[in-house]
Design a protein that fits this description.
Length: 313
């Protein structure tokens, strides 16, 4: 038996499944330790830091983002001789265009889900007249911060190195399913989570993986992810993945959820069939959009492994 073939592929590189597992395990350990230590330090300081404070939401996302980016760069360099820009988190060509279209697609998709909930599920909205200018402005600003770092953290983790290293091994579909499974399971602890919300979040993982695949950078899926959450919470006043405390003074308020099967009930539209339909429609539009294309550089860095012998030659 060739024991080397168990661990190394035909390119003389560590097999992609092992790279995937090493990243996942080291991310889990390093981020857990970092969040615990930094959180304990911040709680000991007179800065008003707590789990329910703005910092309590942002700091774990920030730490997770740094850890995922660092490990993505490190393992890309060690295991595959890749530059940092291969991760898709740098200001490469078309990054701003892809971000812009990501914001458009994300906002369109959540508005479509809410519209379906309104038209077919009895979901109702009204202008938030009980909040003044400052509460509205503070909500827009705080949620902008939370959802920015939340989307960064989840995209560099789930659509970052793990998905990309399997994509270079020519098993993108396997990576898409695995990372979507992890993405959906990471939301199981949210209030009101159930089997249906897991399915919708799994579909959202597929949606965002396709968004990455179309551009081969993280700017487009980040824009999609961020706009979905921010418009949903701060503008439409819908609970984001079951979380109701993130947007205390949204521009609109949900006055009735109607049929929970359609609108998602207290979990928000992500728990209803309206979300399922919107995600499917948006995924198809993204996949077939002719103006969403990777640059030649990013396509080369993400489509296949470079044999190790070519690097050392």
């Amino acid at each position: 038996m060739d024991f080397k073939a168990i661990f190394f592929n035909e390119n003389n590189r560590l097999r992609s499944g092992l790279r995937f597992l090493i990243f996942l395990l080291s991310y889990f350990i390093l981020s857990l330790v970092a969040v615990g230590v930094i959180g304990a330090v911040l709680m000991s300081l007179p800065v008003g830091f707590s789990e329910k404070s703005l910092g309590g939401f942002v700091v774990p996302f920030l730490i997770g983002s740094v850890v995922a980016i660092f490990l993505g760069w490190l393992y890309g360099k060690i295991f595959e001789d890749l530059p940092f820009r291969a991760l898709g988190a740098w200001f490469t060509k078309n990054w701003l265009k892809d971000l812009f279209f990501g914001l458009i697609f994300g906002a369109f998709s959540i508005v479509l889900a809410a519209l379906i909930g309104y038209l077919f599920g009895g979901m109702t909205f009204e202008k938030n007249q009980n909040a003044g200018f400052m509460p509205l402005a503070l909500t827009l600003g705080s949620t902008l911060l939370i959802f920015t770092f939340g989307a960064i953290a989840e995209e560099v983790l789930f659509r970052g190195y793990m998905l990309q290293t399997l994509s270079r091994a020519k098993i993108f579909r396997v990576g898409m399913i695995l990372t979507s499974f992890l993405f959906a399971s990471a939301h199981n602890a949210n209030p009101g989570a159930n089997v249906f919300t897991w399915i919708n979040t799994f579909l959202a993982g597929i949606w965002l993986a396709i968004a990455y695949y179309k551009t081969r950078n993280l700017w487009f899926p980040f824009g999609v992810h961020f706009a979905w959450n921010w418009v949903q919470g701060a503008f439409l006043g819908i609970n984001v993945s079951g979380l109701s405390e993130l947007a205390s003074a949204p521009l609109l308020r949900v006055t009735g959820t109607g049929n929970s099967f359609v609108s998602g009930g207290d979990y928000g539209v992500e728990g209803g069939i309206s979300c399922t339909i919107a995600l499917i429609v948006s995924t198809v539009l993204i996949y077939f959009s002719p103006f969403l294309k990777p640059t030649a550089e990013m396509l080369a860095l993400t489509s296949e492994e470079i044999p190790k012998k070519e690097i050392s030659a």
